[in-house]
Amino acid sequence: MEQFSFSYKKSMVVELPQAIQQLIQASEDVARHAYAPYSNFKVGAAALLADGSTRSCANHENASYPAGTCAERGLLAHINPTEAQEQINAIAVSYISDAKTQTPLSPCGICRQTILEQQLAQGQPIAIYMCSTDGHVIYVDDATHLLPFYFSSKNLDL
Length: 158
Ligand code: THU
What we know:
Elements: E1 9-12, H1 18-31, E2 43-49, E3 54-58, H2 71-77, E4 88-95, H3 109-122, E5 127-131, E6 136-140
Parallel strand pairs: 4-5
Antiparallel strand pairs: 1-6, 2-3, 2-4, 5-6
The protein binds tetrahydrodeoxyuridine.
């Protein structure tokens, strides 16, 4: 019998490795620059690349609502998954709110599918750190844990 078990960890930001704390900080910093005049919901995403560098992006909305882009997809749009140095080890996502809450920012379904495409193309798992506004983090070591049964034409027996 084949089985897939979903697993995640919960931690405080301050308990995580220094590099991940900096990544989370980068996602919070970029969220402040989000262009979100329609939802007033500012999201930031930051990627830790294989070469140790960090890229970040915020959500970017549009008066034509569907033209708006989530922070995660904006981030991935300018990373080349076929370049070894651009492989992503981890992504952190944060949001801005006056309310201090333990609830993390959980990437939407389209963004999960997009992160998985990157993971499949690079052949290495991407850890995802989902941050609350009060220092709590929920994380998974592999993007498949956020989207079991994701779509990939490569999974089909064609
Ligand atoms: N948003 C993101 O940037 N990432 C997500 O994972 C969920 C939602 C943005 C889209 C829109 O600009 C705003 O948050 C409200 O939905």
